[in-house]
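This section describes the prediction task in plain terms. A model, or a person checking by hand, is given the sequence of a single protein chain and must write out its three-dimensional structure as a string of tokens. No templates, partner chains or ligands are provided. The sample shown here is typical of the held-out split.
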Amino acid sequence: MTLESKRNWLLILQIFCLIEGILMCITIVGAIFGAFAIIASNKFKAMKEKDDQTLTEAIKKKDNLGWAVFSIFACGIVGVLGMVFVYFLDTTPDKKDDNIIDI
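The expected answer:
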């Protein structure tokens, strides 16, 4: 894998984390994770903009591995919270149809 393709993957991670962070910041509870997702996006951007030698050394040292792992877990947490929200979305009491007569 060339350095240019690694930079492209960092760009994809940066955009993904930024969108994820913005969407998480819509709610107060999500803002806790959303702020860290935006920070992770900035870390990926900073790593992408390094020169070739520094980028190679940073990849070997796995500098941003923690932020990548955070991004994966944050997606899972937000996904579970989204499913819970959708599950409890229909909280209105069941309305009986007036045309049906119970026997």
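For orientation: The chain has four helices and no strands.
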